[in-house]
Amino acid sequence: MSATIEAEKVVLRKPKASTQIRSAFSTKVASALVILLTIVWTIPTIGLLVTSVRPGGDVADSGWWTVFAHPSFTWSNYHQVLFVGGFGVQGGIIPYLVNSLAITIPATVISLTFAAMAAYALAWMRFKGSDVVFFTIFALQVVPLQMSLVPLLKLYNTGVHIGNVPVFPNLHLGGSLAQVWVSHTMFAMPLAVFLLHNFISQLPGDLIEAARVDGANHFRIFRTIVLPLTTPALASFAIFEFLWVWNDLLVALTFAGGSPQVLPVTGRLLQLVGQYGSRWQLLTAGAFVTMIIPLIVFFALQRYFVRGLLAGSVKG
């Protein structure tokens, strides 16, 4: 009961702290700067949209800004991208959108699940060497992703042997989505554990202690107290992880191959442009279609995203 009361107090203090931060940074100069940056940032997106609805001949002959003087639009680019295909490859990008969802959603959920549990363990289940483990995980961020691709691929396909003694078995995951899920999870863990650990470690110690006095074990504390209070942080990182995996091409091609059954939509977009890069109207139309799902995810989690950014800047 006492743990519930303390949790309610923490939740009540959050809006006040968020309001103070907003008032401190909400000036006329800051607002004007944000509006200016938003306009500048939006210009490439406008160009992408305009190019996607222009005929191929116009795209090859002139820049997108000339449409204001000589308007000419067509929806055939979207029809070809969604249902027909292009450059000798038959079929639209809808199956590849499904492939990207099949890669992105499990990879995001798995990485957040393991990162949240690891962050809680390192923050509130103190053991000898816990700080060393935390800083080791944090230091793994300096390892370039590209350096890990070949060793991981060999690990998946052949395992690890010392002489004739197997140390790690062959998982027989070649060309499957499981390889992509595991790989994205490993690449996301260092940053995810670091960010979630900083958030979870700022939870009031009295709240955790009150739950222990009430007889709650670590799993119940994590499930009923930590997860609800860290929802903004989880949602914030979920947005970043979803965008990273959704826009990825290198990891998916390396571990899943280029077959249509597992190829993500980013790989299909690469095929749309053609060998000589002459079909930009199809590439821009396909790119604009692939932006829709990330935008839906962002706006669905936006309120948690803002709370997550603000919550990490204050204590209590």
Most strands sheet: 2 strands, antiparallel
Measured between the Cα atoms of the first and last residue, the distance is: 20 Å
The chain-level structural class is: mainly alpha
Mean pLDDT: 80
From the alpha carbons, calculate the radius of gyration and give it in angstroms: 24 Å
Helical residue percent band: over 70%
Low-confidence stretches: 1-14, 312-316
The shape is flat
> How do the helices and strands follow one another from N- to C-terminus?
HHHHEEHHHEEHHHHHHHH
The fraction of residues in strands falls at under 5%
Order of adjacent strands in the largest pleated sheet:
1-2
**Topology, number of strands:** 4
Total helix count? 15
Element layout with pairings:
Blueprint lengths: L1 H24 L2 H25 L3 H6 L14 H9 E2 L2 E2 L3 H31 L5 H10 L5 H14 L1 E3 L2 E4 L8 H24 L4 H9 L4 H12 L1 H16 L3 H7 L8 H8 L7 H21 L1 H10 L5
Antiparallel strand pairs: 1-2, 3-4
Helix pairs in contact: 1-9, 2-14, 4-14, 5-8, 5-11, 5-13, 6-8, 8-11, 8-12, 11-15, 13-14
